[in-house]
Design goal:
The protein is mainly alpha-helical. Helix content is 58%, strand content 10%. The strands form 2 sheets. Strands 3-4-5 form a 3-stranded parallel sheet, with helices on both faces. Strands 1-2 form a two-stranded parallel sheet.
């Protein structure tokens, strides 16, 4: 999930906005007693990076709770996604709640985020550019509001169940036509 890139960006953000606070939530962040060995080592590397970057007062690690997620999103100033997720559920949920989005320009992020309309797309593995985008949004309330509303409108327009049903219907029609065309070509050639 590129937590180390996130933490590097957080360190740069804190230099400009000292009151900024960051939340890392997820299964790999659970209390150490409940983790597998590999997840425990990963969590330990995150904790060490937090100490190395002097972010102990600025970062909260917590378990992700599906029950609380919408309440969390409503409290966020923005959502930062440094990873190359497919279609990131967190981006869709936060965007639907009107949270501005900042994400690496990889995976499903370009489908969700319209750069400079619903948030910012930044180069993958570039914490400096990510930090600049976050700082720009956090310092400009009207920009944050505009991106949040843009994210909400984008999600409500492009990612509804009805929209997905239409896309599946078009896909099935294309596949059916392709199959029928192949069958007709085969029949034509064999006669």
């Amino acid at each position: 999930k590129r937590h180390h890139d996130f933490l590097k960006a957080a360190s740069l953000i804190r230099r400009r906005i000292p009151q900024a606070h960051f939340l890392i939530a997820g299964k790999c962040i659970e209390a150490p007693s409940g983790l597998h060995k590999e997840s425990f080592r990963y969590r330990l590397s995150i904790v060490e990076a937090i100490k190395r970057l002097r972010l102990q007062e600025a970062v909260t690690l917590t378990h992700f709770s599906h029950a609380n997620r919408n309440a969390w999103y409503l409290e966020f100033n923005l959502l930062i996604v440094p990873s190359q997720e497919g279609m990131g559920q967190a981006m869709l949920e936060a965007g639907a709640c009107g949270v501005p989005l900042v994400a690496a320009n990889v995976g499903g992020a370009p489908e969700v985020i319209q750069d400079k309309q619903s948030g910012r797309l930044v180069p993958f593995q570039n914490p400096k550019v990510m930090a600049r985008a976050v700082i720009e949004i956090l310092r400009d309330n009207s920009l944050a509001k505009r991106y949040g509303e843009g994210a909400r409108q984008r999600i409500l327009k492009a990612f509804t169940a009805a929209r997905h049903a239409q896309q599946f219907e078009r896909l099935y029609q294309k596949l059916f036509c392709l199959k029928a065309k192949r069958r007709n070509n085969f029949l034509f050639k064999s006669s």
